[in-house]
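Internal tracking record. Fields below are filled automatically when a chain is submitted to the structure queue. Please do not edit lines marked as system-generated. If the sequence contains nonstandard residues, flag them in the REMARKS field before resubmitting.
Queue: standard
Priority: normal
Entity type: single polypeptide chain
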Amino acid sequence: MLRRIQCLHSSLHFIEAAGAHKVFRLWFERGRYDRVLHMKRLILLLAALALAAPAPGQVFSFTREQMIKYTEKNPFDRFPDGRPKVPDSILERVKGLSVEEAWGILLGKGYHQQFAGGFQVLHPGRKLVGRAVTAQYLPARPDLAAVIDSEAKAAGRPRGVNQRVIDLLQLNDVPVIDLMGAAPGHNFGGDNLQAAVYGATRAGAVVDGTIRDLEGIFEIPTQIYFKAPHPAAVGGVVIAGINIPVEVGGAVVLPGDVVLGDRTGVIFIPPHLVQEIVEKAELTHIHDEWTKNKFLTGKYKASDLYGGPLSPELQKEYDAYVKKRTAEKGK
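SYSTEM-GENERATED OUTPUT FOLLOWS
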């Protein structure tokens, strides 16, 4: 909770530019910390209001120019809307990583808000890897919902709330959905819609909310991180934005971030760092492989191989092993 409050306090500098700082500061100074979970989403949405423009059938989304601006470090190609397109070949290499390997490098680069925890995992042991497509939901109010539904109808978009996100998905996309946590109606689909997600992406989803029909979903070869199962269908919410910055499980996610999920949780890797992370992690794999194999022989103490310099003999053996394994991986 303290971390959330600190994040909120730092965000107030941005809100001042939007003219709402007096209200937010009043709430903050009165200690009404119970509002923080909802306020963080409003802060992100206000940021999107300043950065994004309306698009047909949705409230706010980056224009192509804005998408390029706010992901300017992306070294790869882009989708037509400007979203970074990390190559499939790199995504395949990411599947060999762990969250911890990415986490350490991201921390060293100053990216402290990239890990999302506290999720249930549909299939523990199965990795989730892909490119983030983000969606921000808010509690429904009639006037806002009326405008959103009218624009969706005029643009020929689906009437269903979740379908408006799902119909945009492509191969290796991962919908990253801020549904404000687990509550009745904060739902991103049951077995039918999750089948649609998997059919389009061959990946899965990250849902800061609920899913339903868990028995049916379990049979689908997808991977979903979600806060809780609940039988209620989606209701009482609207989509406030698609492909804008969102917050899920404590992580800040931009469209096109590389999603990596394992048993630990989910981490979101900025495209400009993914190549470096993959290359460093592959060397770490070789090191850990050699070290564990040595320990399993029962011939070495922990201090012989871990936490300090190797003996000259072991260092020579290790260097030869690294050279051999690197050559094998390069074939």
